[in-house]
Amino acid sequence: MQTTKPASSQPPNTGSHGRSPTDGVIGTPRFLIFTDLDGTLLDHDTYTWAEAQPGLDLCKRRSIPVILVSSKTRAEMNPLRLELGLTYPFVSENGGGVFFPAGSTPPPPAGAALSEGLWKLSLGAPYDLLVRSLREIRKELGLAIRGFSDMGLEEISSLTALDRQAARLAAMREYDEPFIVQDEGAGDIRSLRDRAEKRGLRVTAGGRFYHLHGNTDKGVAVERLVSWYRASLPHITTVGLGDSPNDIDMLRKVDHPFLVRSRQSYPGVEKDIPAIIVTEEKGPAGWNRAVSGILAGKTIGGLG
Ligand SMILES: [Mg+2]
After folding, report:
1. pLDDT per residue over 268-280, tens digit each?
2. Cα distances (Å, whole numbers) of residue 42 to 110, 239, 241, 253
3. How many CB atoms lie within 10 A of CB 169?
4. Are 41 and 284 in contact (CB under 8 A)?
């Protein structure tokens, strides 16, 4: 897989202080950064981001939006966004929901509705429909499927290594049902996908779970946000970082896609996305090196 990239292919970094002839406005952020959380900005096991802090600080200094795009719920993501000091929109549940902080500039797109202090744009299928469909599919295929809706907080907590309070937030689903298949056999997921597609739904694989969701993905949500930003910042360059198959749709939609190394490998991904760069380091360390490198306009090669 490609791990290097010539410096000349990187756009010049102007940050929030510089100006390129096409920027139009002084202070324009030059980049938009879309990032997955688990295994990417957050460590897969500890959920910490300390190693990514220098890159995050750099983005903050240059007013570069860092947009969280995760399979996590709004209930999990909003406190995390605030803890990270981010004032930008975020995407929950694999593209099901896009949330804009009150006072977002430009104003949230048409269709967004104010919901508990955030503007919410629903792109995904409603959760009760997903739960009903997964139960039907389980019956039809006779598979040992367990969705979050079948699990108590203890079970969610042990499968995710989240404490009880965090597991409670993870269970507050709106657009996506995570599930496991016990004793999974070859072809089970293919059958499951077929049944989901017949219902206009989709199954994707995340780092820990499979997910049943509507006909949305991280890429659709990212596309909506890029259009929203480009309406006022037409020359913005987009960066995407993710570590799992459910990030591929997002990585396909950005100018600079990074696959953050994880314990899994994804053969064929560079054929699918020729511009992809695989970080040498895992998780937040890989994130930091990728973001710091691209913002500095440095050669990305030798990320490790
Ligand atoms: Mg991930």
Report:
1. 888 889 999 999 9
2. 32, 17, 12, 22
3. 17
4. yes
* Integer Cα distance of 290 and 281 in angstroms: 10
Structural domain includes residue 74: yes
Tokens of residue 116, six digits:
């508990």
254 CA to centre of ligand 1 in angstroms: 17
At 64-73, the pLDDT tens digits run 999 999 989 9
Closest CA to 106 of 23, 255, 227: 227
Specify whether 149 is located in the same domain as 262. Answer: no
Residue 98 lies in a domain: yes
Which two structure tokens, joined as six digits, stand for 252?
A: 């396909």
pTM: 0.83
Number of domains in the chain: 2
So which residues are the catalytic ones?
Answer: 36
Question: Could you list which residues have their CB under 5 Å from ion ligand 1?
Answer: 36, 38-39, 207, 243-244
